[in-house]
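Q: I have 350 residues here and want to know how they pack in 3D. Can you give me a structure?
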Amino acid sequence: MHAPAPSAAVSAVRFAGVVRHFGSVKAVDGVDLSIAPGEFFAMLGPSGSGKTTCLRLIAGFEQPDGGHIEIFGETVEGLPPYRRPVNTVFQDYALFPHLSVGENVAYGLKVRGVPRAEREKLAREALALVKLAGLEARRPAQLSGGQRQRVALARALVVRPKVLLLDEPLGALDLKLREEMQVELKGLQRALGLSFVFVTHDQGEALSMADRVAVFNEGRIVQVGPPEEVYERPATRFVAAFVGAANVIEPDMAAVLGAVPRLYSLRPEKIALLAHAAPAPAGAAVVEAVVVDVSYQGPVRRLAVRTPGATLVAAVPAAQHAPAPGETVRLAIPLAALVPMEGEPKGGGA
């Protein structure tokens, strides 16, 4: 599936039929994409899906074996990293331990020949931008993980790139700090108006931060769109399973529900648990199921249930009465919540 081109006349980043092979492995296999100026664009996928290789192709750390890459209208195939208007923030931060925080941030300016007084001023401004004002004299070892991540951001931003590339930048942080940094990163991106290209395997990060998400699998983009669209209307079995939890409704089960017999996805939160005497809601099919497992997850309980046609997962409010494993329950499945997907039924080579 090709990414639709944003409306901007010139894309911040554009791939046209880009290919990158490592021996017999097709790491990137004919990728087309267009990222708009000022867009927060997430590349989401499992390890080995091609997302990080695409980021390295934008950065210039890899060169394509085929296809075309542009950054703000400039052809960049063959250009080394230092001649591209981009900078990269890595998961491991890649800070120099023997340099102070201020020297780390100013390093790129020093390489570019910026005079000392000017680079120190710009480094202070960049550190203030990421809420680290006054820490210029410290060493990286004296900082927390979140502070080191901010230093890496400041170092990348101080050279004023047109595109900021972020390679799993929050992967080394604990959950609470990661969630805080997600909010800060998005706020920083909005304030600066830069194009951010963010690589992650964490679907929660991609959905919460990005303007658009490209889902990668086996070197290709299998779906691209706003987070709500990718989550609510997954195009394939792979997207449905990878971007959040989803039930895959096979054609036989769809027929039982009264829908056209084809492949559908069904999000667990769309399934309602009915009281035994409650009438069927309008537009919903009602099926009986046996509860296999119940797990408490804060605001919801997840029920694994076995119906005559499939084993499903339902997410019901935690405040609702929880059935016990082995209990028979009634489920209401709104037919409008069944999202048609591409692909073959199970066992059919999807």
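Q: Anything worth noting?
A: The longest helix spans residues 175-192. The chain is about 25% helix and 30% strand.
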